[in-house]
């Protein structure tokens, strides 16, 4: 070691891993010898301890000799101590070996304390002392007096280690219930080192939030309530010391700028006392024991320090008094305030007001801290006065509140931020700190006392638009506080703020309109509108009349000035806040004004030269809020009075178009704008049509105008269309959808509709020709692509694939329009069949080319483009809807088969690629098709599904493909069952009932060969629907088939792939599926179950194994034992698929208990019209089998390895077990007692006693 240089110190770091490897190897060898020699003696155990610790001594001797590399030596020593702690090498016993080892560790501790004053190694030494404390706390206990200075005032580089050591010492005292001794030592250290440098030590680790939180946790968890008063007295005795105590002899160098005084504030000790008071747990009776002490503290400490005599020098003495006063109010809220007499309370309000006024004029941290605490104490005083219905004689609560607010509100800087630390308060962020206290704690309290002017100021701050982008993570800002406040329900419950909030919001928007009125092309219109808006209570109709010219003009281009851009940026923040308000917050009058404001805001601030993303974002914010206002209670208001607003929304949307290839974010915003505008259009048109059918001529003219406007827009876009701006069909599609919905709704109510209102007129012919021409263009594009593929032997480049894919994708809105046009044929008898055929034939002719293209796209590497594939599948989903809507018109079985085949294929592809959007479209198409099918067509679809199910079972190598196909079969069968309602389509139920046995057998075969848990879950869902559908007459044979299908899951020969794919959540879901099937049979098929009761009971017996878990005594058994346990369970013919994941959750246990409870339920319905006598016989039959279920439960509980041991599961199962005892007669109980062993009899006696005591009906 003497040859080591400073650069070679890294060689010392090898000692720690070397020590760990030695101990591991030695223990491995020792265990091998121990297994061969069963007998052990004390001397051998002592030798083992000596060897492991002796190696540490050798390493330590090497390190203390390495004087050349002291830093590396200390760090290596810490690593060795960490190894000793992790590997549990040292044991603090009272024998000779432990004493020798303790002496060595004491020498290590002494060595570390000798070097503790060296600043460059202080952090490493403190970490070593922390490790020694964890090894044996007695090593540090005798050095505590020497350790306090370095914990209170460590160097900056060692603050983290100092904090960790301080928390470790605190926890050591707390665990031994010696918090009082710890605080006594702490206070003595403060008395010697810290009380004269309060502001300096408050920035140190011992008074950081991390340590104070740890102190509160230790007090909460480890301080008995009986010690609380004595600990409280320790603090009070320290604070009550003579104010002019001389400075201690030990002095540390202080900063020249630090304020010194002969009078101590005891702020450090009071910080700990406040944390202690907030953390202690006391009962009401224990709090009463503090009454005498609280009175003395209030008079002798708090009041004396709060009386500052208008001297700024006395403010530092008031800060700890304010902290203590607030802590006492929070802890003893029901005692402390009532102990104070009226004179005391009057003086308190005067002192608080004096401190607030005096400290508000200063800018030092001490003054600002006193200002913040005094504001909080004042609001706290007001709150308790209101709570106790106290009216102070010196000053009214209203005046006190408004005086404080007149000081606080001007200090709030909306752009400032604060890091949350009291020590970092300054003149700029004090307003943010005050705003945080005001809004989070006291706003509901003072809202009834505030003057209108101050209420207006508060509201303006809440809805202010300022937001700093420079705010750092974790900092507090006024904007962030406001956002939290607006998301809380408490703010909206303040009735006094409502009117003021609306006025401030409305004024903010109108002020922006006034700014743009200057120098604008429409300055006269805007000026008049701005003046009307700024009236005190403007009426809505005059405002609408003044705003109409802005929307009736063809265009209004606003200059892209810096002022207008800044207005737009501020509007984003204001609109985002506005979206947080619930619609119930505003009255009808206010909602109409806000609606007009949204329309005007978008119209005036959609600047042509601004960024397109900003324009879309602004439009989305305005229109989405307008939609909320319109949808709430259907208050369309002035929007239906003149269609110009809706027409402008529709026309202006085209100018917001963004190509997805150039700007993805902008395109998504544009799509959201279109969606929102469509929703607005549907609401307004529905209201207009209702009014028009009632004879309102203005509404009739508005509908005609809207149709003409849509026709004009369509013709313009069709004429000027380009690749960057396609024809927008969403609004026309929405118009046709609304007309169809209104026609169908009036037909259901047997009301005639005015034909001219619901007729498209010449617009329909334009749409027909447009759809037909686009079908031809798409067919030609795909045809050309296919020809190119055939002509060339090389792969088609991705650019050609993308261009063709765009053509197919752009066909989606045309399909949506086509579907609505086809629906119009069903609702409108005036549409001729030849017209509908002219539209339908081209659409059907496109399906096959699109399907071929989809197959080619999937078979190439281009299918990795998930977004393109999702859109192509979306087009196929729209085609499925269109095709299924055409099947009833064609009345052709061949077409029905082709439609089902197409829908089936699209669903398989979407399911294999996880495209939920396409799957939803296919489900919608197939579900809508089923009720319209004739009986022959329904039989054809059912046979198609049955045939498909016979082709889905291959080897396990094709597991993925088989799963997709099998799940598709089950899904379409489920859709078929749930969409042929017996009320409307009774003829469809007949073929289904005739083939129900075949359907059940098919599902059982699927379950037998299932390779994924999702197949089992779908199969069980079908079984449950069949069992619960009382319109399906099930025979005993059918019930036996269902029970057999579930029983086969007990087979030990289940596919390995199925077991590997099943997770615990899957096991819980499968159990719930089995429960629903069995519960449905018990509830609706009890008569048919009699013949199959034995296998049914066997299922119930085996399900109880799903809740067993390893006994705690063998929870650390070897893997071999666990595997043997699983083999034993398999031999018992349990549900291995479920028991492999046992225990299942509590929900499954409750379901099982409900199942057992249903066994004795005589009120269950049955399709066989069971008489009361037969129902009684059924209950008797179940009572004969209930002992076998109880016996199985008892055998599980008596198992020495695994039982149902979780308390939650045992509690959940108990009601079901009691229900079994309810239906067991005396004979069944005797039989059960004779069949079980002694341990099981004891369990049964305990269960029977609990049943008799808590559950058994005795007639009383």
Descriptive overview:
By secondary structure, this protein is mostly helical. It has 59 helices and 4 strands. The strands form 2 sheets. The protein has a two-stranded antiparallel sheet with strand order 1-2. Strands 3-4 form a two-stranded antiparallel ribbon. Helix 56 (1172-1197) crosses helix 57.
Rg, rounded, reads 41 Å
Contiguous low-pLDDT stretches (5 residues minimum) are: 242-262, 556-563, 951-955, 1115-1132, 1167-1173
> In one word, what is the shape?
globular
Number of helices: 59
Q: Write down the overall mean pLDDT.
A: 82
Q: What percentage of residues falls in helices of 4 or more residues? A: 55-70%
Count of strand segments: 4
Biggest beta sheet summary: 2 strands, antiparallel
Strand order of the largest sheet: 1-2
Distance between the termini: 90 Å
Q: What structural class should be given to the helix and strand makeup?
A: mainly alpha
Q: Beta-strand percentage?
A: under 5%
List keywords for this structure.
two-stranded antiparallel ribbon, 4 strands, 1260 residues, mainly alpha, Nucleolar 27S pre-rRNA processing Urb2/Npa2 C-terminal domain-containing protein, 59 helices
Task: Tell me the layout of helices and strands.
Elements: H1 15-36, H2 42-65, H3 70-86, H4 96-114, H5 122-135, H6 138-141, H7 144-152, H8 159-175, H9 179-193, H10 198-201, H11 209-222, H12 225-239, H13 267-279, H14 284-288, H15 291-306, H16 315-331, H17 336-339, H18 342-359, H19 365-387, H20 397-408, E1 417-418, H21 430-446, H22 452-462, E2 476-477, H23 478-486, H24 489-492, H25 498-517, H26 523-533, H27 540-552, H28 562-578, H29 588-605, H30 612-631, H31 644-653, H32 664-693, H33 697-719, H34 730-748, H35 755-758, H36 762-791, H37 798-809, H38 812-827, H39 833-859, H40 866-890, H41 893-912, H42 916-929, H43 935-949, H44 959-978, H45 986-994, H46 996-1008, H47 1013-1028, H48 1036-1047, H49 1056-1061, H50 1064-1084, H51 1086-1089, H52 1093-1103, E3 1109-1110, H53 1119-1131, H54 1136-1139, H55 1146-1158, H56 1172-1197, E4 1202-1203, H57 1207-1223, H58 1226-1235, H59 1238-1254
Antiparallel strand pairs: 1-2, 3-4
Helix pairs in contact: 1-2, 1-3, 2-3, 3-5, 4-5, 5-8, 7-9, 8-11, 9-12, 11-13, 12-13, 13-16, 15-16, 16-19, 18-19, 19-20, 19-21, 21-23, 22-25, 25-26, 25-28, 25-29, 26-27, 27-29, 28-30, 29-30, 30-32, 31-32, 31-33, 32-33, 32-34, 34-38, 36-37, 36-38, 36-39, 37-40, 38-39, 38-40, 39-40, 40-41, ...
Domain Nucleolar 27S pre-rRNA processing Urb2/Npa2 C-terminal: 1019-1259
GO cellular component, one term: nucleolus
Organism: Umbelopsis vinacea
């Amino acid at each position: 070691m003497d040859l080591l240089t400073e650069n070679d110190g890294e060689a010392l770091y090898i000692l720690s891993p070397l020590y760990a490897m030695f101990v591991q190897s030695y223990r491995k060898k020792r265990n091998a010898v121990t297994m061969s020699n069963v007998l052990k003696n004390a001397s051998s155990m002592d030798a083992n301890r000596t060897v492991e610790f002796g190696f540490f001594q050798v390493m330590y001797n090497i390190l203390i000799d390495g004087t050349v590399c002291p830093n590396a030596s200390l760090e290596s020593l810490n690593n060795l101590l960490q190894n000793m702690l992790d590997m549990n090498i040292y044991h603090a016993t009272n024998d000779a070996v432990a004493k020798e080892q303790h002496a060595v560790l004491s020498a290590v501790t002494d060595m570390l304390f000798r070097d503790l004053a060296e600043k460059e190694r202080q952090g490493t030494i403190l970490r070593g002392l922390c490790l020694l404390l964890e090894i044996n706390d007695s090593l540090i206990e005798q050095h505590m007096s020497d350790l306090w200075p370095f914990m209170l005032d460590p160097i900056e580089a060692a603050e983290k280690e100092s904090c960790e050591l301080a928390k470790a010492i605190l926890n050591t005292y707390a665990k031994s219930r010696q918090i009082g001794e710890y605080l006594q030592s702490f206070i003595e250290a403060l008395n010697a080192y810290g009380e004269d440098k309060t502001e300096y030590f408050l920035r140190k680790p011992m008074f950081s939030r991390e340590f104070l939180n740890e102190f509160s946790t230790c007090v909460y968890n480890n301080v008995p309530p009986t010690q609380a008063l004595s600990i409280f007295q320790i603090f009070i005795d320290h604070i009550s010391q003579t104010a002019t105590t001389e400075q201690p002899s030990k002095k540390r160098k202080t900063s020249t700028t630090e304020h010194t005084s002969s009078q101590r504030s005891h702020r450090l000790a009071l910080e700990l006392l406040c944390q202690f008071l907030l953390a202690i747990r006391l009962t009401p009776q224990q709090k009463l024991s503090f009454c005498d002490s609280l009175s003395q503290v209030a008079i002798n400490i708090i009041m004396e320090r709060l009386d500052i005599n208008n001297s700024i020098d006395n403010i530092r003495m008031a800060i700890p008094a304010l902290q203590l006063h607030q802590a006492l109010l929070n802890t003893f809220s029901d005692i402390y305030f009532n102990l104070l007499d009226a004179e005391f309370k009057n003086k308190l309000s005067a002192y608080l007001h004096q401190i607030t006024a005096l400290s508000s004029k200063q800018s030092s941290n001490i003054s600002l801290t006193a200002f913040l605490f005094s504001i909080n104490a004042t609001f706290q005083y007001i709150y308790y006065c209101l709570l106790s219905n106290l009216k102070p004689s010196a000053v009214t609560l209203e005046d006190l509140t408004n005086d404080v607010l007149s000081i606080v509100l001007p200090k709030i800087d909306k752009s400032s931020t604060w890091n949350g630390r009291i020590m970092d308060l300054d003149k700029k962020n004090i307003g943010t700190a005050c705003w945080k206290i005001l809004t989070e704690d006291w706003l509901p309290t003072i809202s009834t006392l505030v003057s209108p002017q101050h209420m207006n100021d508060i509201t303006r701050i809440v809805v202010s638009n300022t937001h700093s982008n420079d705010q750092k993570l974790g900092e507090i800002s006024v904007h962030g506080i406001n956002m939290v406040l607006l998301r809380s329900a408490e703010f909206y419950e303040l009735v006094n703020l409502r009117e003021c909030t609306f006025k401030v919001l409305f004024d903010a928007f109108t002020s922006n309109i006034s700014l743009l009125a200057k120098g604008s092309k429409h300055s006269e219109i805007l000026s008049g509108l701005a003046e009307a808006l700024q009236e005190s209570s403007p009426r809505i109709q005059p405002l609408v009349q003044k705003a109409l010219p802005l929307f009736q003009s063809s265009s209004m281009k606003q200059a892209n000035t810096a002022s207008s851009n800044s207005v737009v940026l501020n509007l984003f923040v204001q609109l985002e806040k506005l979206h947080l308000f619930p619609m119930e917050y505003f009255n009808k009058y206010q909602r109409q004004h806000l609606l007009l404001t949204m329309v005007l805001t978008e119209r005036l601030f959609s600047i042509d030269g601004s960024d397109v993303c900003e324009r879309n974002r602004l439009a989305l914010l305005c229109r989405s809020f307008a939609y909320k206002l319109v949808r709430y209670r259907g208050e369309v208001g002035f929007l239906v009075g003149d269609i110009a607003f809706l027409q402008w929304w529709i026309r202006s949307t085209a100018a917001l178009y963004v190509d997805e290839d150039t700007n993805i974010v902008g395109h998504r915003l544009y799509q959201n704008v279109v969606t929102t505008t469509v929703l607005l259009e549907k609401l307004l048109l529905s209201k207009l049509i209702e009014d028009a059918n009632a004879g309102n001529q203005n509404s009739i003219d508005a509908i005609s105008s809207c149709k003409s406007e849509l026709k004009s827009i369509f013709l313009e876009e069709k004429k000027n269309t380009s690749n960057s701006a396609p024809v927008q069909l969403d609004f026309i599609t929405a118009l046709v959808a609304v007309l169809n919905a209104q026609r169908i709704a009036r037909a259901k109510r047997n009301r005639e509709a005015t034909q001219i209102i619901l007729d498209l007129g010449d617009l329909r012919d334009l749409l027909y020709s447009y759809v037909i021409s686009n079908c031809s263009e798409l067919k030609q594009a795909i045809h050309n692509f296919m020809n190119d593929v055939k002509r060339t032997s090389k792969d088609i480049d991705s650019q050609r694939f993308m261009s063709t894919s765009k053509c197919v994708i752009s066909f989606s809105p045309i399909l949506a329009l086509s579907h609505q046009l086809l629906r119009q044929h069903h609702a409108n008898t005036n549409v001729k069949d030849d017209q509908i055929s002219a539209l339908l034939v081209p659409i059907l002719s496109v399906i096959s080319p699109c399907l071929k293209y989809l197959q080619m796209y999937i078979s190439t590497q281009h299918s990795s483009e998930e977004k393109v594939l999702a859109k192509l599948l979306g087009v196929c989903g729209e085609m499925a809807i269109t095709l299924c809507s055409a099947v009833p018109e064609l009345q052709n079985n061949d077409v029905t088969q082709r439609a089902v085949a197409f829908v089936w294929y699209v669903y398989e592809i979407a399911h294999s690629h996880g495209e939920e959007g396409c799957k939803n479209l296919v489900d919608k198409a197939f579900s809508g098709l089923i009720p319209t099918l004739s009986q022959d067509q329904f039989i054809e679809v059912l046979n198609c599904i049955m045939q498909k199910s016979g082709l889905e079972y291959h080897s396990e190598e094709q597991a993925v493909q088989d799963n997709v196909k099998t799940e598709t079969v089950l899904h379409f069968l489920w859709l078929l069952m749930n969409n042929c309602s017996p009320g409307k389509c009774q003829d469809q139920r007949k073929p289904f009932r005739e083939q129900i046995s075949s359907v059940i057998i098919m599902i059982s075969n699927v379950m037998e060969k299932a390779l994924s848990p999702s197949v089992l879950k779908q199969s069980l869902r079908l079984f449950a629907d069949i069992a619960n559908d009382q319109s399906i007459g099930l025979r005993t044979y059918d019930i036996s088939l269902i029970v057999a299908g579930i029983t086969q899951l007990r087979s030990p020969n289940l596919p390995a792939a199925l077991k590997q794919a099943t997770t615990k959540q899957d096991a819980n879901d499968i159990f719930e599926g089995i429960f629903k099937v069995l519960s449905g049979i018990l509830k609706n098929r009890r008569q048919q179950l009699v013949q199959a009761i034995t296998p049914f009971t066997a299922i119930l017996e085996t399900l109880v194994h799903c809740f067993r878990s390893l006994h705690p005594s063998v929870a650390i058994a070897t893997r071999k034992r666990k595997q043997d346990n699983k083999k034993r369970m398999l031999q018992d013919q349990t549900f291995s698929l479920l028991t492999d994941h046992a225990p299942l959750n509590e929900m499954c246990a409750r379901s099982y208990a409900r199942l057992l409870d249903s066994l004795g339920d005589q009120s269950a319905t049955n399709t066989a019209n069971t008489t009361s006598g037969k129902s009684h016989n059924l209950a008797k039959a179940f009572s004969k089998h209930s002992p076998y279920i109880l016996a199985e439960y008892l055998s599980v509980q008596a198992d020495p390895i695994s039982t149902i041991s979780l308390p939650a599961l045992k509690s959940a199962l108990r009601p079901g077990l009691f229900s079994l005892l309810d239906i067991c007669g005396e004979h069944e109980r005797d039989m059960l007692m004779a069949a079980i062993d002694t341990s099981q009899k004891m369990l049964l006696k305990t269960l029977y006693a609990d049943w008799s005591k808590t559950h058994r009906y005795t007639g009383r």
